[in-house]
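Q: Got a minute? One more chain.
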Amino acid sequence: MSDFTKIFGTRVFNDTVMRKRLPSDVYKSLRKTIDEGEQLDPSIAGVVASTMKHWAIELGATHFTHWFLPMTGITAEKHDSFINSTPEGTAITEFSAKELIKGEPDASSFPSGGLRATFEARGYTAWDPTSSAFVKDDTLYIPCVFFAYDGHVLDKKTPLLRSMEAISKQALRILRLFGDKETTRVTATLGAEQEYFLIPKAMYYKRRDLVLTGRTLFGAKPPKGQELDDHYFGNIKEKVQRYMRELDEELWALGICAKTEHNEVAPAQHELAPIFASANVAADQNQLIMELMKKVAYRHDMACLLHEKPFAGINGSGIIYLVAMNDRKYDIYAFGQMKDEIMIKSIRNDLASDLQPYLTDGEYYTAFMGYADKVEEEIYNVYENGPNAEPSYAVPIGIGCGLVIALITVLIM
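A: Always. Here it is, folded:
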């Protein structure tokens, strides 16, 4: 592939597509919902739905689905076609604002945690505009939340979105304490490093326990395990490389920035790490990553195992979560840089004064004031050099621990 960057995001209804295709006022209104958490304006939904339909059909889509994550641990979807009949016996394509915003899948057999009886079948999906729609397998996928007719939450996305709102609210309180009066929203970001095993498909189907449970339940240890750790970051076999390249292309087209791939410590174990995104988007992307890992492996006569411990005696797989908080407006780490012209000495003195009542151990306060000049130096260091500034390590670790404990105490109280 000569210019692989051209395929990135080609199957995603992302900001570039919205800006190009949506009317200016509709685009701005939708961006406020995505960026600032404002309530979706129902009057723009019809325009967005029509634009989304035409875009998806151009990519070969014939159906749409509300894509959600019930408490089964896997994604769920119900496909409806764009086609509708006319009295003249011909067919037209339709996709209304109502169909975009809300769906009504049968919810009777989804787990509810005891919230309701099985026969209470009514469940609803609602569009999540903060996670981009995409086209996959000739279908327009619309990320959604899922809830019962009485408002009870039946999915895993809604608690995540609520948690992100709670983190933003409390993070803004701390930013105000540090003198930041401009930031209006803090976004939790997530980088999910996905580990997995690849084994020959023929061998996979010979082990009924692997097929049914995703792991081996008995058997002898392999003649070679991970004793020498020589597989870790070792040379990637050509067959696996071909698999990784095809997987990359599939993920890039869906706007997932697959960045790093390498051999893991156990034989036949590997890892894929995408670039971080907002926690909500990253969670959706991780579901797609795991789904495509299995599909692409099948095309290469391999089976992809995602169970956390498929084999005894060697390293298990899992997901490594790298979590941070980000100020989306300025595209910097919210706690990594002081913005604008802030009085550094004022920050130091106000911080010490504000935190004093919450420092249960007087040693922290004494250390903080005793090293006031050093603390000021560190603030200057971050202010001048940005969030990636190398610390001078002039301030004892105890001071940092004390500040963290104090800030947590402030939040709790």
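A: The chain is about 40% helix and 20% strand.
Q: Perfect, thanks.
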